[in-house]
TrEMBL record:
The keyword Nuclease does not apply. SUPFAM superfamilies: Clavaminate synthase-like. One of its GO terms (biological process) is DNA alkylation repair. This is Alkylated DNA repair dioxygenase AlkB. Residues 115-212 form the Fe2OG dioxygenase domain. It comes from Neptunomonas qingdaonensis.
Amino acid sequence: MSKKTGFHDRSYDLFDEQIDPSENYLPKDGIVNYYGPVIPPQDADNYLRRLLEHIEWKHDEAVIFGKHIVTQRKVAWYADQPFEYTYSKISRRALPWTTELSALKARIEELTGETFNSCLLNLYQTGSEGMAWHSDAEKDLKRNGAIASLSLGAERKFSLKHKQSKETLSIDLQHGSLLVMKGTTQTHWLHRVPPTKKVSEPRVNLTFRTITVIKE
Ligand SMILES: O=C(O)CCC(=O)C(=O)O
Ligand SMILES: [Fe+2]
């Protein structure tokens, strides 16, 4: 199929890769849908370049067992309002949407039929940077709200592990692809991005979320 397909043409993702976005990847206790690439490769390249330039990337910080940790991975946080969001015990105040983020948010809302009011961005500069097992069930997040994860750049493995049964599964997240976690996924499953020696290129991940507790 031609790669000229326009950005707004839904047929791009639905037919090109034979991926069914309504298929649930989880065997139980939640819903994970993988849409495959939803942004044509050249547009995805442009978004990656512009996000690397325009986003206010900062090292991620956390307090773990009373110790202040600064991770290699960089993060950024954007939203409708200057929400304060507590993530691994560190509070951050959201920045206003950039042009690129507003366009991507609109595209993802259109594809998923969901709405989002915030986006946490992660920059994995090489394969040596990853994200440890966790679930996104912070109290500020809408309970059982959908989380839409857009990947740009290097393809990385995304793993899910059931908290009780320890069942594990993995999905390779392609350049320009969309993954959605919803229902009770965060209650019953952990997820991570394992580090890998096979990748040296950067990857940017955007997770669109809904925040409910509003602090001024
Ligand atoms: O980079 C990813 O694909 C996952 C990011 C993630 O789990 C998070 O930001 O909470
Ligand atoms: Fe997460």
